[in-house]
Amino acid sequence: MAYLSDIEIAQSTPMKPITEIAKVVGIHDDYLEPYGKYKAKIDYNVLGTTGRKNGKLILVTAITPTPAGEGKTTTTIGLADGLRKIGKNSVVALREPSLGPVFGVKGGAAGGGYAQVVPMEDINLHFTGDFHAIGAANNLLAAMLDNHIYQGNALNIDPRRITWKRCVDMNDRQLRFVTDGLGGRVNGVPREDGYDITVASEIMAVFCLASDIEDLKARLSRIVVGYTYDEKPVTAGELKAVGAMAALLKDALKPNLVQTLEGTPAFVHGGPFANIAHGCNSVIATKMAMEFGDYAITEAGFGADLGAEKFLDIKCRYAGLNPDAVVMVATVRALKMHGGMLKNELGNENLEALEKGIPNLLRHVSNIKNVYKLPCVVAVNRFPTDTDAEINLVIEKCKNLGVNVVLSTVWADGGEGGKAMAEAVVKLCEEPNDFTFSYELDETIEKKIESVVTKVYGGNSVNFTPVAKKQILALKELGYDKIPVCMAKTQYSFSDDPTKLGAPEGFVVTVRNVKVSAGAGFIVVLTGDIMTMPGLPKVPAAEKIDVDASGKITGLF
Fold it and tell me: For the chain, which terminal residue's Cβ has fewer other Cβ atoms within 10 angstroms, N or C?
C-alpha cells in the first residue's frame, strides 16, 4: 500500500487563516502580529490579561530513542487534536525545528502523517526568523568580545580562556575547530576557536527560559564568555552587549501561533537540543498555551531521561510549573531495537526481541511515577508494519504490571486516533500528584549529578575525571554551585555509552567536563562524546529537497 508523504499530506490539507485560529483561543487582534496568512506572532504582554485560570499541563515524552523513530511530536499533536475531538479546549506548545536535522538525518520535525502542525514547510525552514535572531545575538556577542580584546582589552580577558563560540544553524563539522584572527594585526587577535549549532547556543537556552523581556536581559547579562588572566569570569554585561542583543531578540521572544491539520491552535517557539541543552520550547509559549487552553500539551526532546528530566528539574523549577500528567510514547519498532533487532529487520514480527526491549519502557515509566511522583500513561504509537500480536504484547505486559496504556493511531487517523489517549489523559489530570524534583538545589554539584545518574538513568555511580573535578571546584569558588545541572549525554542509552540499549544496569557514567551556563542558570555536565556541532551524514536529507517554478517545496519529509 502506498502512503502519502508528510509534506504531501500537509500540502493537500486546507489551512484556516491565522486570524481564525487566534479567535478559537480568544486572542485579541491587539496582540496578534500576522506573518502572512497562516502564521503569526503573539505579543507576550497578553499573558495575565485574560483573567482565566491556567489549564492543565501535560508533558509528552518517550522511551529511549532509536533511529527507528518514536513519533513523540506526532503523538503530542494527535493528543491535542484528540482532546478537541472529545470536546476539550486544548492548545499545543512545541519546539521549532533546527535546520541541522532538517537537512541532515531526521528530516522535518513538525509531526507526521495526519498529526502535523502547518504550514510545515515554513515551520521546518526559516519560519518567522527566530533562529536567525538567536544566531545574530550570539554572534554579536562574539564580535564584541573579540573587538574588546583587539581594542586594548580593558577587562584583561585571557584569549586562551574564551568560552564563547560563534554559531550557525546548520550541521557543519568543518566549523567545529577553527583558527581565526589571522592575516596581521588589523584582522584581529589570532586564536583557536570553533562554532556551535544555534540550538546548542546558550542564547537559545536563555531565550527559552526567560519569562519576559526584563528576565531575558538579566539572563543575557549573566552569560560568562571567558575568564581573565587572573581567572575571574567575564560576562556579556561587562562587555555592554546586552541592550543590543535584546534588541535583536525582541520580536523573536514573541511566541509563534500556527495550527494543526485539524485546526487546533499551536504555539511553536524556541528549540534547544535535549542531549546538549534542556530540550523544551519556551516558558512563555508554555504559559501562553496554559492561559488560552484548558489542556496545554507540550513535549520534551529525546527520551524521558533527557528531555523530561530537564523539563521537570530545570524548566518547571524556574517557571514554577506543576505538570498534571505525563504521556510516555513507545513504539514496537523502537522496543524491538532495544531487544536486539537491527533496523533493517524491523518490518518482521519478533515477539522475543519486543519482550526483551520492554524493560526500557518500564524504567522510564517508573522514573515518572516514582522519582517525579507524576501520573503517567503509555501511548503505543502504531506504525503500519506493527502486527496485532506485537501491539497486544506491549499492552498486555503494561497492564499486567499495573501500567496505564492506550493505543495511539494518530499518524494514520489524526485526532480520531488520539481519542482514547485523550480520555486517559483527562482522567489522569484529575488525580492529585505530589510532583517532586530528582534533586534539591542546595545539594553539591557532585550530588546533583549522582542523583540524576542513579535515580533517573539507573546507573551505579559517577566517575569524575581530574579535569571535571578541577572545574567543579572552580565553579563552587565562583558561587555557581546552587543551580540545576543540565546533563549532556547520548540520547541512545540510559548510560553514556550509545551501544548499551534497553535498560542497562551496573554502569558508571564518566563526567569529562563541567561548565557554567550562567545566563541559562544551569551547569552543563558533559559525558561521553557529545558534540555541540553535528555533521551531515553520507546522504543528507538535503539531497532530496527541491522547489519548483511555482514555489512548491518537495522532499522535505
Answer: N
At 215 the pLDDT is 97
pLDDT of residue 346: 85
What is each CA distance from 23 to 42, 123, 263, in whole angstroms? 12, 21, 11
Which is the catalytic residue, given 207, 273, 411, 507?
411
Which residue out of 292, 302, 311, 437 is catalytically annotated?
302
Identify whether 72 is a catalytic site residue. yes
Catalytic residue among 200, 210, 236, 274: 274
Is residue 143 within 8 Å of 178, Cβ to Cβ?
no
R_g of the chain computed on alpha carbons: 23
Q: Is 411 a catalytic residue?
A: yes
Residue-wise pLDDT tens digits, 259-273 = 999 999 999 999 888
Is 164 marked active-site?
A: no
- Catalytic, 383? Answer yes
Measured distance CA(442)–CA(317) in Å, rounded: 13
* pLDDT for position 264: 97
**Residue 317 annotated in active site:** no
The reply to whether 302 belongs to the active site is yes
Summarised one tens digit per residue, pLDDT across range 189-209 is 889 999 999 999 999 999 999
Which among 64, 66, 74, 527 is annotated as catalytic? 74
Are the CB atoms for 255 and 31 separated by under 8 Å?
no
Q: Has 219 been annotated as catalytic?
A: no
pLDDT of residue 108: 64
Which of 95, 315, 369, 448 is the catalytic position?
95
Of 82-91, 215-224, 270-279, 363-372, the range with the lowest mean pLDDT is 270-279
Amino acid at 234: V
Catalytic residue among 13, 16, 23, 106: 106
Helix (H/G/I), strand (E/B), else coil: 440: coil
What is the model's pLDDT at position 233?
Answer: 96
Q: What's residue 533's pLDDT?
A: 87
CA-closest candidate to residue 68, choices 532, 381, 298: 381
The candidate with the shortest Cα–Cα distance to 223, out of 426, 6, 4, 521, is 521
What number of CA atoms fall less than 13 Å from residue 161's CA on the CB side? Answer: 16
CA distance 431 to 116: 29
Q: Is 35 exposed, middle or buried (0-12, 13-18, 19+ CB in 10 A)?
A: middle
What is the side-by-side strand order in the sheet with 157-162? 157-162, 224-228, 233-235
How much is the pLDDT for 17? 97
- The three-class DSSP label of residue 60 is strand
Tell me how far apart the 2 most distant CA atoms of the chain are, in Å: 72
Asked if 97 and 546 count as a contact pair (C-beta separation under 8 A), the reply is no
Task: Output b/e per residue, 82-111; b: 16+ Cβ within 10 A.
Answer: bbbbeebbbbbbbbbbbbbbbbbeebbbbb
Q: Which residues pair with 32 in a beta bridge?
A: 42
In sequence order, the 6+-apart residues with CB closer than 8 A to the CB of 515 are 163, 471, 523, 524, 526
Cell numbers placing 557: 519529509
Q: So what's the pLDDT on residue 133? A: 97
Q: What pLDDT score was predicted for residue 107?
A: 62
Q: Catalytic residue among 292, 383, 437, 557, which?
A: 383
